[in-house]
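Sequence in, structure out.
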Amino acid sequence: MVYERLKSVCDIVLKDEPMKDHTYFKIGGKASYLVMPKSIDEIKEIIKIAKEERYPLFVIGNGSNLLVDDKGLFGIVIKIAKSFSDIRVDDNKIIASSGALLSKIASVACENNLSGFEFASGIPGTLGGAVKMNAGAYDGEIKDVVVRTTYLDKNGNVSIRQGKEHDFSYRHSIFGDEDIILESEIVLNYGDKNKIKEKMLDLNSRRKEKQPLEYPSAGSTFKRPEGYFAAKLIDDCNLRGKKCGGAMVSEKHCGFIINYDNASFNDVINLINEVKKVVYEKTNVVLCEEVKILKNN
C-alpha cells in the first residue's frame, strides 16, 4: 500500500534499499523505502503519505556527512540529489536547488567568472545539507555567500529565510531536522575565470594531500572546539591510528574516523565515544560530532 502510494507520486521508489549504497561511509542497513523526488509538489505529497501512514521520515542529500545504523531505517527516506539539482545564473547570483552538488555549483560559478564559492568546490555534499550545517572549508563558509533560502517546514508549508534570519554560526543554521531545504540564492563577486580555476585546483590538491580520501568516511568527524583543533587534540592524546573493529582514527588526518576494514555502525560509534572519553579525560575538552547519525528512536 505504501509502495503503491509513493510510486503514484514519484518515479524512483526503492524498497528495502541498503543505505550503505547512499553514504560515503559505506555503512548502513536497509531503509523501508527510499524515494528521489524531482519537484516540490512530489516532496509535499511524500510528506503527506508519511504522516498518513505514520512512517518516520528521513531526508538526506549526497550522504557525505552521514552514519546510518546497520539495523536500517524503518520509514521513508527522501533523497534530494540529482533529480532535484537545477542551477540558474542571474548576473552575479546563482539560484540552486538543494540537491545540487557543491562541486557543480563551484564549476558553474567559475564558468561564469564568479568568485567566492571556491572554498566549497571540494566539499562532496549537496547545497541543502551544506546550508543546514553552514558547511565550510579553507576559511570559507556557506554563511558568506547564501542570502536567501526557500524551504518546507515540518507542516509542509513553503517558507523563506533571508540574510540574518538564517541564524548562521559555526556548523549551525536555524533549520531543524524536520525542515527540508528546497533552494538557496548565492551572491558572488565577478572575478577572473583563470584565477578562480587556479584557486579551486589548489584547494582540491591540498585536500587530497591532507585528507584520507582513499577510505570511506563522513569527512571531519568532530566539530572544532572553541579555541582548539579537534585533530590536534586527538593526536596529542596518542589516538592516531586507534582502532575499533573496522573503524580507525585516520593516520593521515586525526580529525577523520575512517571505515578501513568493513566497519560496522557500532565500530564507528564505539570509536567516536572512546575518542571523546580519552580527549575529555586528558584535556578537559568536550568533542561534539559533526557527522550526522541516522537511526530509528
